[in-house]
Amino acid sequence: MVTWGRSSQSVPGPGYGQNQKGQKMKKCLLFTAVAVAFTASSVFALDSTRIDEIAQWLPEKPAASGVRIGDRAAWGRLAALPSAARHIEDAEKALAQPIPAVPDELYLEFTRNGNRRNFETPYFARIDTLSTLLLGECLENKGRFLPGIISRVKAIAAERSWTMPAHDGDLTCFNGTPHIDLGSCHRTITFSFVYDWLRDVLPQDVKDLIFAECDRRTFQPYLATCRKQLDPKSSVAHRHWWYEGGNNWNSVCNSCVVRAALAMINDRRLRAEFVASGEHTVPYAMKGYTDDGYCSEGMGYWNYGYGHHISLGLAVRAATGGKVNLFSAPKHRAVMMYPYGYQLMDWQSPHFADGGGNSSAVLLALERQVFPDIVCRRAADVDLLLGGLTDISLRAFGQDPGPTYTNGFDTLPIRSWFPDAQVLISRCVQPEQTLRLSIAIKGGHNQELHNHNDVGSYVIMLDGIEMGGDPGGEIYTRRTFSKDRYVSKVLNSYGHPVPVVGNQLQKTGRDAAAKVIQTDFTDAKDEIVFDYKAAYPVPTLQSLVRTMTFDRKNATITITDSAKFSEPTAFEVPVITYRDWEANDDATRFSFKKTPKTYRRLQMAVKASAPVTFRNEKIENPGRPEVTRLGFTFNQPVTNATFTLVYSAN
């Protein structure tokens, strides 16, 4: 379960919890998630009886992915919105732009030097521009964007590969065998909107082209996967690992393909096969979330992965008249609460591992179609034209219950605690507090999704500005998802605020895990104690304990590492920051601020059980700001050591 801690001045929740000392936590709102129980079959061929059952619930003709351009009552309501004019202006600008080239040599650059961006920039620009033109045409309905839409459809249809080069390392797709990845399924779902919304105005040859390319590149490979008909000798067989995978790929790819099939395929039983396949994959995708709803991929990937699951579930629910419910497992409620709890301040999330980004207001608005009681002002006031084509279709033409609003989720609680993930976020959030200070700290393990070797890492925020802690991710290259991933100082533990022990960094693996020794959560103070000895492959290390104490009354955060060794061993503890910093002469007091002119600062006092040497260095992170590493190394190997950082704000 994920526990939302509220102070005594907040509205109490429906339940109370206890910390690991057995003491009652004061006014904590509890949301309990039950694990999804299922047995993974070694053969995932679908049940024909279930397909027949679903077919009875589907309409005779494909289910529209919204409404078609001819429904001027529906589109006219959107065209009357103040934001519609901006979308039409965007379409005018898009129409004036040439179609970016994606030559073979650009595709092959990834195989030569690992660069992803040079190809992906024009690749995504093509499909994004098509979406912009489609929305502009549906809002305006004058036909002036149709030529641009058709020319871009033809250009994308003629691409040698819809799969991104980073997902086609052996060039199987480039050489003519289609497979489905995050990029190709995005092209498919966008083509399905063009096909469906403009069905009555597109020339027949363009509609035939759209369907033929989606069928060849996506529908047929997908059916081969779900029917388990792949040639054992074919290199395509391993491409659709995501079909029963446990990360964002599962939800994104299955959602896009199934929704496109619902909008385009005439044969009702065949559509039912796609729906049954999507239904089959959901429990596997949900394995990627802990039972308390935590997403180790981070907020950005929650938006992307679970956001696509929301889209799939709503589309299938509408197409089957509510007979197929992809949100039935209790765990879904906890996962939908994740963006509410995973905030440091004001919808700003900590950036652990690769998972940057903050919560999407559009997805919060879509959530209320599943759980109407999970709603906040931010979700209630979202413009109907905000988001992508999927978001617009599901909200403007779908099942949105309207701008109902309750006051349950706008005020942040004093803490969010994800016990299964071992992630705690503690905050000063009361109106009378002039200092808005917060910290997120994680235990976890080093085989999480989009993992960094970061057991024990933390992030500190002051007045909405991240001041220190975890560096976040890097710009993806070929190395990022290779055997050399942890060569990167941003991905290995060197660039994180965790110790270097015996000159060793943290190891990778599920056994490199923290244990929560103790929690003590009250209105005045939060304390958590981790043992994370297991993260270090150091034979002399007998114990390594990190204690974080958040004193709300005095607005201080204390982080203490205590280490014991069987024989003298080198020991270093770093501090990580992107901010400007200053230190006194003996490097025992530090000050961090956003810019030289910023008045508010985060202060840090350093206390060590033996003399330490301080040094600072820059850690390169190409394409992103450099991070500063402030290292404190004990001058002599130690058998017992404590190192304490006391953060305070002024």
Written description of the protein model:
The chain is elongated. Helix 7 crosses helix 9. An 8-stranded antiparallel beta sheet has the order 11-12-13-14-21-18-17-16, with no helix packed on it. The protein has a 7-stranded antiparallel beta sheet with strand order 2-1-3-4-5-7-8, with helices on one face. Helix content is 31%, strand content 20%. Strand 19 and strand 20 form a beta hairpin. The protein has 3 domains: 187 residues, no CATH class; 175 residues, no CATH class; 228 residues, Beta-galactosidase, Chain A, domain 5 (Distorted Sandwich). It has 650 residues and is of the alpha+beta class. About 6% of the residues have low confidence.
